[in-house]
Design brief:
Elements (H helix, E strand, L loop, with lengths): L1 H8 L8 E4 L4 H14 L4 E7 L6 H15 L2 E6 L9 H20 L2 E3 L4 H14 L12 E2 L2 E2 L1 H4 L4 H11 L15 H16 L3 H27 L5 E2 H6 L2 H16 L10 H6 L5 E6 L2 E6 L2 E6 L10
Parallel strand pairs: 1-2, 1-4, 2-3, 4-6
Antiparallel strand pairs: 5-6, 7-10, 8-9, 9-10
Helix pairs in contact: 2-7, 5-8, 5-9, 9-11
């Protein structure tokens, strides 16, 4: 049973405060109902973020309010500011959601729960595999990262199961038409790639998820090897780096780059040969993603890439 699987996952506990991200879609409606069943209505706060990007966004907020009234849950609505004129609109919207969620959860001393499912995980892995290199693309989303938890993902709940739960409980949900818009890469993965893989093998999604689970276990071993190579340092001699097996050296380069920038540096590992070519002489190289490799006295360190100077025309 879905409820028992989520209970067994241990991310939602009786009376433990939790903020549930509530879009109004089937997955988040299911998660909110399950959270109330496991933690109790008084421990649950729902957060709806209105990005104001669709004419129906007010109807989404109203549907969330009606659901929360039925379940006896407090609802907080965050209305996002104006979207950027340029840049990735989805990234902006995601930043608004998670930013508002983390702030509210922090004030409440609560966990922040999102309604990602096993179906979302499979689609995420397939998308990242196509869009970015490296084993990190295959690891997928963690089911727990600090105060951020994904109870349905840990329980292996699928999108079909959340729909069945809502239908059985008489819970209405909202459909976002952008989810069917093939202008978005994620939609093309969902509507095109996933069905094609199912046609190859009916257990395609489950096999993707099992592969990711095993890779996450193996990633812990690889991370330990990187830590052993660095011995707690935030630098390494170029000669020492060159003596490591190339796969381990690439991981070391990425670890150092990400420690320096505080973000993902997927391209750093691919620049291993260029970094080694710097040699023992003092030199520097921008490796992408805001990371700069710097060699001084034969020792490699990473810093952030400084902003470009804006020159003036004569």
């Amino acid at each position: 049973m879905l409820l028992e699987r989520v209970r067994a996952g241990g991310l939602l506990a009786p009376a433990a405060p939790v903020v549930v991200m509530l879009s109004g879609g089937r997955d988040s409606v299911c998660l909110l109902d399950v959270a109330v069943a496991l933690a109790g209505a008084e421990a649950v706060t729902a957060l709806h973020v209105d990005h104001g990007l669709r004419p129906a966004s007010a109807d989404d907020a109203a549907a969330c309010a009606a659901l929360c009234e039925r379940l006896g849950v407090e609802l907080v609505v965050h209305r996002a500011g104006a979207p950027p004129e340029r840049g990735n609109l989805h990234a902006w919207a995601r930043g608004e959601r998670y930013g508002a969620g983390r702030r509210l959860a922090g004030r409440r001393g609560a966990l922040l729960a999102t309604a990602h499912t096993a179906t979302d995980q499979a689609e995420t892995i397939l998308y990242r595999l196509a869009a970015s290199p490296g084993r990190w693309a295959l690891l997928g989303m963690p089911d727990e990262a600090g105060a951020l938890v994904r109870p349905l993902l840990r329980a292996g709940v699928t999108r079909e199961e959340t729909a069945a739960w809502c239908a059985a409980r008489g819970l209405a949900w909202r459909e976002d038409p952008s989810n069917a818009d093939d202008r978005y890469a994620r939609t093309r993965v969902r509507e095109g790639l996933v069905p094609a893989l199912r046609a190859v093998h009916p257990q395609a999604e489950a096999n993707v998820l099992r592969t990711a689970e095993r890779l996450r276990e193996e990633a812990a071993v690889l991370d330990a090897a990187v830590s052993q190579a660095l011995h707690g340092r935030d630098e390494i001699a170029v000669a020492e780096l060159a003596a490591l097996p190339a796969p381990l050296a690439r991981l070391v380069v990425r670890r150092l780059a990400e420690a320096a920038t505080g973000g993902l540096c997927a391209r750093a590992a691919a620049r291993l040969d260029d970094v080694l070519a710097l040699g023992p002489a003092d030199a520097a190289l921008d490796v992408g993603d805001g990371a700069r490799a710097v060699v001084r006295d034969g020792v490699l360190r990473f810093t952030t890439t400084p902003p470009r100077a804006v020159g003036r025309r004569a």
